[in-house]
Amino acid sequence: MSEPTQADFGEESMQIRRLTYGDLPSVIAIERRSFPTPWSLAMFVLELSKPSGICLAAEDENGLLAGYLICARYDEVWHLMNVAVATEHRRRGVASSLIDRLLAEAGPDSRFTLEVRVSNMAAIAMYEQIGFRSAGRRRSYYHDNGEDALIMWFANERVRAGVA
Asked: In this structure, which of 59, 83, 119, 159 has its CB flanked by the most CB atoms within 10 Å?
C-alpha cells in the first residue's frame, strides 16, 4: 500500500490516501449530495473489502473528506466505478488528483474504463483532459431517468503504443 501524498489545490492542501471503513459516513454524505441514485453503504463496504480494488480518499487541511474514488479490477482492466467530490471542494482539481493517483498506483501497463452520464459535461471534459476517450454509449444505463451512459477508455502511452 502506498503512502499518503500531498496535493496542492490553490490556497488549500489535500492529502490523497487510501479510503477506509471509517470514512464511510462522510462518503455516504457526499454520495447523497452528488448523485440522484446514490450507492448504498453495503455497496461501499463491498468495494472496500475487495483486495484487488483501489479506493482513495482526498482529505482537506482540516482532516475532512473532500472526495473519494472507487476503482475495481476485472481481469486486465480497471473499472472506475465512482468518483465524487464534496460540493465545497469542486472545481479545484480534487477528482483529477484522485484519478492521477489511481493511474500511478495501478501501474504503467494498466487500462481503465468508466461510464458517465451523457449530460455530465464537466465530468466528460475532465476525463478527456486526463486522457480518457469515448468508445460508445450504453443506452438507458441509468435507472433513475433512463439516461444513456458514455463509455470511456484510458490506456497509458505504453499500452497505446503496443509495448505492454
From this structure: 83
> What distance in Å separates the CA atoms of residue 121 and residue 71, rounded to the nearest whole number?
21
The single residue of 115, 141, 142, 147 carrying the catalytic annotation is 115
Asked if 127 is an active-site residue, the reply is yes
Q: Active-site residue among 31, 47, 59, 127? A: 127
Q: How many residues does the chain have?
A: 164
Q: Which residue has the higher pLDDT, 123 or 3?
A: 123
**Residue found by looking up cell 475487495 in the block:** 50
The domain of 26 spans 5-160
Confidence band (pLDDT; 50, 70, 90) for 6?
low
Residue 25 burial class via C-beta count within 10 angstroms: exposed 0-12, middle 13-18, buried 19 and up: exposed
Domain total of the chain: 1
Helix axes 24-34, 41-49, angle to 10 degrees: 120
For helices 121-130 and 94-106, the axis angle rounded to 10 degrees is 40
Q: Examine the residue annotation and report whether 68 is marked as an active-site residue of this protein.
A: no
Model-wide pTM > 0.90: no
CATH code, domain carrying 124: 3.40.630.30
